[in-house]
Write a structure and sequence with these properties.
- This protein has two domains: 5-100; 117-221.
- It has helices at residues 5-22, 26-45, 47-50, 56-66, 71-89, 92-100, 117-126, 135-146, 151-167, 175-186, 192-213.
- 69% of the residues lie in helices and 0% in strands.
- 27% of the residues are buried.
- By secondary structure, it is mainly α.
Length: 224
């Protein structure tokens, strides 16, 4: 996949223009422009070796860029990079869906994550929040039991989802906030296979969470 500076600029301007048209503040568009300039530079630097027709090279570039930003901006970079991807590859159908569904995030989302994965689990255990599982989590766990899932599998998924819900507890319960929480969780995992397992769990649980909060399970609302 050859790198084209002209196409990169077109993609960046199209994304920023859509944000502006949707009402994003100037400081938001300026920050995202700054972040995406770094991403585009990373994509250009690895174009000869890693850019292919799938998204692996893009994800490699995102991982590279994240290391050069402070911890409190990493979730934002992941979210912005995901939103920018269909513009990068020229996926007009997905861009149209994002536009129609108002699915772009127009401001920084409220997520609470700091330190390591163990740090976050310790915070969760010390907090009074989550002593009783939310209804959406209870429904999800009941469905796992009904499917005959092993008790250890259920326990692990319960812990992961409780931490996800803890991270987004102060955010507005909308799909973009859920997605930001997933992004925040991903920064805590050091192994790619663990990240993939969590992504599968988050996608599975999203339908229970979304049904509880909005009743909307459409493709355009999918957050993970």
């Amino acid at each position: 996949m050859p790198f084209s500076p002209q196409q990169a600029d077109i993609a960046l301007n199209a994304y920023l223009s859509l944000l502006k048209n949707k009402g994003a503040a100037t400081n938001v568009t300026n920050m995202r422009k700054h972040m995406l300039r770094h991403l585009i530079s990373a994509l250009e630097a690895q174009a000869d070796r890693y850019l292919t027709d799938d998204d692996s090279g893009y994800r490699r570039a995102v991982d590279h860029v994240i290391k050069h930003f402070p911890d409190d901006q990493q979730v934002e970079i992941i979210n912005v990079s995901r939103e920018f991807y269909p513009f990068w590859i020229g996926d007009l159908r997905t861009i149209a869906r994002l536009n129609a569904a108002n699915a772009l995030t127009l401001e920084s989302l409220t997520v609470d994550v700091s330190g390591t994965l163990m740090d976050m689990f310790e915070r969760l255990d010390r907090a009074s929040w989550g002593k009783e599982p939310p209804a959406c989590l209870a429904d999800y766990l009941d469905s796992l039991v009904a499917q005959g899932a092993d008790a250890s599998v259920i326990d692990i998924r319960e812990r992961l989802i409780l931490l996800l819900l803890f991270i987004i507890r102060n955010a507005e319960p909308i799909p973009t906030a859920y997605r930001a929480g997933v992004d925040a969780m991903l920064t805590l995992f050091s192994k790619e296979d663990t990240r993939r397992i969590f992504i599968d769990v988050a996608r599975e649980f999203f339908y229970f969470w979304n049904r509880f909060h909005s009743g909307d399970e459409s493709d355009t609302a999918r957050a993970a």
